[in-house]
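Let us practice reading a record.
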Amino acid sequence: MEALSSPQSYFRGDVMLNTLHRRAFMASTAAVAVTAALRPTFAADEFSAFDAVGQASLVRHKKATALDLVNAAAKRIDAANPKLNAVVTEFFDRARTAAKDKLPDGPLTGVPYLIKDLDNVAGIRTTSGSRLMAHDIARENGPLADKAIAGGMVLMGKTNTPEFGLTATTESILLGACHNPWALDRSTGGSSGGAAAAVASGMVPVAHATDGGGSIRIPASCCGVFGMKPSRGRMKLGDTLPGDIAVENCVSRTVRDSATVFAMSENNAAAAPLKPVGFVAGPSKRRLNIGFGTANYFGLEPDADVKAALEETAKLCAGLGHAVVPVKTPIDGETFIDAFLTVWASGPANLVALAKSKGLKPEDVLEPWTLGLAEFFARKPKDAMAKSLVQFKEAEAEVTALFKTCDAWLTPVLASPPPELGYIAPTVPFQTCYDRIVKYVSYTPIHNVAGTPAMSVPLGMSKAGLPIGSQFAAAQGGEATLFALAYELESARPWAARKPGIWVG
C-alpha cells in the first residue's frame, strides 16, 4: 500500500475542497499537532486526521481501501468505546465483508458510518433504547441508512440513544449512560448522544442523527461537533402523521461532511415539497441580517457561560461583516411548551398501550420518564391534541414572520453547558425532571414545530472547558444560507484543533 500523504498536501488535489476551507483545515491540523502532547489520547492511526470527504478521497485516488478505513475505525471504536458507551451494537465483520465488495460509487465511498439506534439496519436489532424493543430485529433498512449505503458508506454499528429519543440526555436503563468525551461525568445530550460522542472522540468522522425537538443540535452542542437539522420535508422518511416534527441528518466534525451527507440524503423527487439544495461547497459573499437574542421563549436568560459564548458569536458575525440586530422570540413559552409536550407525550401514551397489548406491564419495560409523559397525556382533555396542532400552526406562522425581518436567527442551543449525568436521567422523579428539561431545552423545539432548518455550531467553551454550541436558524428551505455561514464561521474560528480528553484520532 502506498504511503499516505499528509492531509494538508493531499487535500490540495481534492477538487471538492475550496481554498478558504482548506486553509482553515490546515491551520487546525497544525494546532492539533502542537497540543497533542498536552491532552490524554489513544494512539492515532493514519486516517484519523482526515474527515469523511478526505477519507473518501483517499479511496477514490487509491491511497487507501475501504477495508483499510473500516479496520482503522474498528480499532478506534474498540479503544474509546469502553469509556464512552457511544456504540451499543457493532457489526464489524459484516462491514468488512461489505468493504471488500464493490461499493456504490458515491461521494463518500468507503467511509465508515454509524446509525442511531432509533433507525433500522436490516438484520440488526433496533432497540430504540427501550426494554420494550430490546430484541427487535429490523427487516429492512431505514431511509437514511439506504441513502448512506447508496452513497458508498459502510455501516459499522448502532449508536446509543435514550428510550425512543424522548429526552435530552443519553442514559437509558437498557443501554446505559453515554459519557461525554470532554468530561466523563457529563451528559452527551440527546437523543443523538451516542452519535455525537462517537464523532467528538474520533471513532468516525460523521454519524447518523435524528432531531424531533433538538436531538441533533443538543448533542452537537454538548460534544463540540457540528449538527444541522434540516427543514421539515427535506428528507423523504416515508408516511408521516399530523404533528410529526422529526427529521434526520447527521453530526460531524467538519461542515463539508454534514453538507455532503445532507446532499446525499435529501429528497430529489420531482414531487419533493422543497427544491433540492445540493452540495453547498463553501461560504458565500452575501452578508446576512442576523437576528440575535439570548432570552428563551419564557423570557429567561441562559447560564452566564452560555450568554457570554453567544455574545462572542454575535461579535464574530459582526466582525465578518454581517449585520447583527436584536430580536425577541415571537413565541409565548407557556402556551408553546404545553402544546409541544402534549404532542410529544402522545407517543409514550401509545407505547403504554403497546406494552399492554403484548401482555407486559408498562412499568417493567418502559422508563419512569416515558410513563410520566404517558400520564401527562392521559390527564389532557380529549381535544388537547387537536388544539395543540392548531398552536403548532400559529407558532410556525410567527416564526415565518420573524424571518421576513432577518436572514438568520442566532440563539443559544441550550440554557447551560452539559449537565452531570443523572441530572435529567429518566429515573429522576417526573415533575423534577420535567421542570429541569423544560428550562434546559428551551431554544431548539421551536424549529421542529416551525419546520425551519437550524444548526449547532461549536464556537464556544465554558470556563470549565465544556463545549457550548451556537444555534443559527433560517426560514424553511434555507439550509444553503446556513451551510454557507457555517463554512465562514469554521474558517474564522476553526474548531478542529480543540480535542476532548477521550480522543482516538
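A brief commentary: Residues 7-332+390-492 form a domain with the Amidase signature (AS) enzymes fold (CATH 3.90.1300.10).
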